[in-house]
């Protein structure tokens, strides 16, 4: 997103200065705080823009007492940071691609959060004749999570309960049950059993400070458990889909994660987003999308990018998709494993139908998903 946003700033004649820093810890990074504060002190800036919300940037702006708006466009949910106080600062404007998560924040009392779908850029390769290499490709993470290590210290009953939640989530097509199921009682039970078993957190930077124990493990937050279970469910969903597809079609996986369970899938490893990925999208008859379970309603960036590269996307259903795309005309979605196989079998044989769907999808992208429209919408809000 960052290169496309900068291109759009130039197209709109926005005067901007870019600097690139990845926080060591999304909750606290003194270096990022000081660098941001120093730049804003020395410069004459009216806005700060970031891809994804940063509480560190919000606190740096607050410390200056200057008339600066903080605009952040979020392509992942939930937010990385646990500190969401800055969402209520008057200068904050947070734009989120998933309506369900946006509404949850509003219901929790947070202000200045707005629903805004993502955008994409149509690539030249979309108009070139495809040279098909694979029947089905998937580009993305397989979310080989820490779930096994996390659940190892838990009792058989609690581990079985969590496994049941994950399996139930795997059967859903849209929505996420974990937010409602992870209550304080369950959270205390999980942390209590891990502490009793001398467990350790997934990351020393992700501990919850008010749950200190003699073991040195502070405890998991609800957000951590939610994200961990969502990743595990997504891994299982993606693995099942690829196992079904590889049994019938020439299938490829392009990911940093190698999956030993996939015996007949080509492992292409990590590929560059801007150079190699468009070629894979255009030269695969079908590009699979199985959304991260945290994305309850929104259209993932992968879906838009596949279409923008002239690829045919076969996606699990996401409610917001049909707000823009006509089913089986502009995009193809599946609701279960049976539909996945049936639609894949049809699409692989029907070249002209695929190209018509791609053509229709590109028209929707042109009309409704440009970076220019999104940037103007964000910066036009007072």
From TrEMBL:
Pfam families: Glyco_trans_1_2
Protein name: Spore protein YkvP/CgeB glycosyl transferase-like domain-containing protein
Domain of life: Bacteria
InterPro entries documented for this protein: YkvP/CgeB_Glyco_trans-like
Domain Spore protein YkvP/CgeB glycosyl transferase-like: 260-378
């Amino acid at each position: 997103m960052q290169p496309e946003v900068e291109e759009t700033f130039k197209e709109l004649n926005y005067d901007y200065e870019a600097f690139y820093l990845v926080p060591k810890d999304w909750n606290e990074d003194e270096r990022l705080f000081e660098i941001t504060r120093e730049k804003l002190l020395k410069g004459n800036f009216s806005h700060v823009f970031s891809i994804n919300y940063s509480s560190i940037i919000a606190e740096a702006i607050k410390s200056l007492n200057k008339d600066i708006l903080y605009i952040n466009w979020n392509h992942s949910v939930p937010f990385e940071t646990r500190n969401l106080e800055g969402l209520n600062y008057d200068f904050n404007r947070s734009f989120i691609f998933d309506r369900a998560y946006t509404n949850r924040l509003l219901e929790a009392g947070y202000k200045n959060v707005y629903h805004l779908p993502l955008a994409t850029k149509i690539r030249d390769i979309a108009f070139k004749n495809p040279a098909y290499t694979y029947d089905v490709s998937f580009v993305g993470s397989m979310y080989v999570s820490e779930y096994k290590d996390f659940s190892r210290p838990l009792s058989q009953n609690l581990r079985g309960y969590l496994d049941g939640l994950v399996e139930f989530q795997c059967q859903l097509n849209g929505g996420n049950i974990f937010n409602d199921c992870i209550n304080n009682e369950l959270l205390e039970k999980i942390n209590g059993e891990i502490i009793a078993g001398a467990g350790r957190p997934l990351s020393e930077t992700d501990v919850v400070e008010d749950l200190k124990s003699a073991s040195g493990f502070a405890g998991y937050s609800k957000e951590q458990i939610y994200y961990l279970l969502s990743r595990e469910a997504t891994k299982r969903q993606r693995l099942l889909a690829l196992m079904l597809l590889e049994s019938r079609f020439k299938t490829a996986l392009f990911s940093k994660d190698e999956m030993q369970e996939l015996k007949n899938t080509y492992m292409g490893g990590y590929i560059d987003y801007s150079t190699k990925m468009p070629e894979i999208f255009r030269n695969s008859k079908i590009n699979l999308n199985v959304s991260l379970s945290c994305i309850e309603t929104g259209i993932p960036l992968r879906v838009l990018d596949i279409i923008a590269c002239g690829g045919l996307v076969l996606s699990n259903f996401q409610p917001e998709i049909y707000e823009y795309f006509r089913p089986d005309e502009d995009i193809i979605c599946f609701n279960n494993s049976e539909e996945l196989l049936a639609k894949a079998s049809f699409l692989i044989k029907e070249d002209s139908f695929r190209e018509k769907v791609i053509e229709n999808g590109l028209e929707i992208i042109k009309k409704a998903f440009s970076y220019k429209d999104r940037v103007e919408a964000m910066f036009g809000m007072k």
